[in-house]
């Protein structure tokens, strides 16, 4: 999976576990074109700063949520969820297996209805600190030539099938 696809998947990470909770449910993702701006810092230094657009659908969201849940089970992750305000959700987790085994992860997800969101993903892996900030906004209908799951990179290049394994 490319870095851009990973960061796009990260946009929905905060809602993956919450989607299965009875009391904690973020609003559904609106179908159409979304722009996601992601900035990743490691030890305080920016290592990635990019934007990507994705044609989103309910089926794509469900597939990403199912994939996230499979990854959680496979990596034996424990998760604690809370909702400190009407539009903010916090997920704290630790996985026993996988690429982040033993690392503490905290995701703070704030939504503005179904048209925008702000996500902060904090990863503490044995003293190494990573922060990913993701701002997503709904732009409207998907343009001609893009189908659900397609990504449009900053240079205009379209990559087909964002949820392929």
Description:
With 165 residues, this protein is of the alpha+beta class. It has a single domain, classed as outer membrane lipoprotein receptor (LolB), chain A. The protein contains two helices and nine strands. A nine-stranded antiparallel sheet has the order 3-4-5-6-7-1-2-8-9, with helices on one face. A hairpin with a 3-residue loop joins strand 5 and strand 6 (116-125). It is globular and about 45 Å long.
Quick gist of this model?
This protein has 2 helices and 9 strands.
What is the CATH-assigned architecture? Clam
| Shape call | globular
CATH class: Mainly Beta
Question: How many helices in DSSP terms?
Answer: 2
DSSP strand tally: 9
Distance between the termini: 7 Å
The structural class is alpha+beta
Give the count of structural domains: 1
Our estimate of the beta-strand percent is: over 45%
The parts where pLDDT drops under 50 for at least 5 residues are: 1-22
Rounded average pLDDT:
81
> Strands across the major sheet, in which order?
3-4-5-6-7-1-2-8-9
Please tell me how large the radius of gyration is: 15 Å
CATH topology label: outer membrane lipoprotein receptor (LolB), chain A
Instruction: Say what oligomer this is.
Output: single chain
Order of helices and strands: HEEHEEEEEEE
Helix content: 10-25%
Q: Main β-sheet, in a few words?
A: 9 strands, antiparallel
């Amino acid at each position: 999976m490319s870095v851009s696809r990973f960061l796009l998947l990260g946009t929905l990470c905060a809602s993956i576990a919450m989607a299965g909770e009875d009391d904690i449910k973020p609003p559904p993702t609106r179908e159409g074109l979304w722009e996601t701006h992601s900035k990743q810092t490691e030890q305080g230094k920016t290592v990635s700063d990019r934007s990507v657009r994705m044609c989103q659908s309910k089926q794509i969201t469900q597939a990403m949520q199912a994939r996230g849940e499979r990854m959680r089970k496979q990596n034996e992750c424990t998760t604690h969820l809370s909702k400190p305000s009407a539009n903010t959700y916090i997920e704290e987790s630790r996985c026993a297996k996988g690429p982040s085994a033993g690392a503490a992860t905290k995701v703070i997800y704030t939504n503005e209805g179904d048209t925008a969101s702000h996500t902060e993903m904090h990863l503490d892996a044995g003293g190494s600190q990573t922060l990913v900030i993701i701002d997503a906004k709904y732009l409207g209908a998907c343009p001609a030539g893009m189908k659900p799951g397609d990504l449009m990179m900053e240079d205009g290049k379209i990559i087909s099938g964002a949820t392929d394994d």
